[in-house]
Automatic annotation (TrEMBL):
Entry's family note: Belongs to the ABC transporter superfamily.
Organism: Roseburia zhanii
Regions that span the bilayer: none
Domain of life: Bacteria
Protein name as annotated: ATP-binding cassette domain-containing protein
Full-protein residues shown: 1 to 232 of 332
Domain ABC transporter: 2-232
Lineage of producing organism: Bacteria, Bacillati, Bacillota, Clostridia, Lachnospirales
Keywords: Amino-acid transport, ATP-binding, Cell membrane, Membrane, Nucleotide-binding, Translocase, Transport
GO cellular component entries: plasma membrane
Keyword Aminoacyl-tRNA synthetase applies: no
Gene Ontology MF term list: ATP binding; ATP hydrolysis activity
GO annotation (BP), single: amino acid transport
Amino acid sequence: MIRLEHVTKKFKTKGNEVIAVNDVSLDINKGEIFGIIGFSGAGKSTLVRCINLLEVPTSGAVYFEDTDLMKADKKELRAYRQKIGMIFQQFNLLAQRTVLDNVCYPLEVAGMKKKEARERAGELLELVGIADKAEAYPSQLSGGQKQRVAIARALSTNPEVLLCDEATSALDPITTRSILELLKNINKNMGVTIIVITHEMKVVEQICDRVAIMSKGSVEEEGTVQSVFLSP
Ligand code: ADP
Ligand code: ADP
């Protein structure tokens, strides 16, 4: 579904060159949960930003299905970005808006009528198990509840891919488990492909089908979680 071919991203700062991502090739299959694990500074965020094209790779290619995204025009890129939802460690909710309005926001930006957007947002809040907080503000919610809202918002525009960037890193172990279960259900029931960026082994063990280990910009190993971590 998403294919990276020899993706390299270099940054130049004051004459110094940092190779944040070094010759990474990966295939992410439709319907799977793919993990990218590595220590801080390994290049995970930069790689994700190359996948959603917030960064343009210095060299290499990114394909979505048969589209070469490096050669795509504006319209194709916009269509591609709409297929990708994102959630983050810090939730990134709008503090001045209620839970319901946070989920409505991307729908209204996409041109949906207010009434319809509210209905759809309500269904999504139901789906992530937080419909009772629809009129609350983000500051009134726990971390796990905030992440549920962020997941509802990310799903509002029906993305085919959900990118989760350290989505459970700010949560305690029990809340982490419940958010990971929710992501697993979304993958299974809605067929959303999920890409999980994490520095935590337990996250990969709990939900990933396949995993790539990143270190110093490179993918060191890649395969099923079983083959990479659990075999002798
Ligand atoms: P991770 O997400 O695994 O923590 P990052 O992708 O954030 O890793 O960073 C990989 C490397 O690239 C680090 O050495 C980081 O300092 C460097 N880096 C990331 N973004 C930039 C940038 N915009 N300018 C310069 N260096 C960067
Ligand atoms: P970093 O890891 O370098 O701090 P992030 O990956 O968290 O950066 O993203 C930086 C900002 O870009 C965030 O505030 C986030 O809201 C925005 N952003 C990242 N990816 C997307 C996306 N696919 N769509 C919309 N906004 C995005």
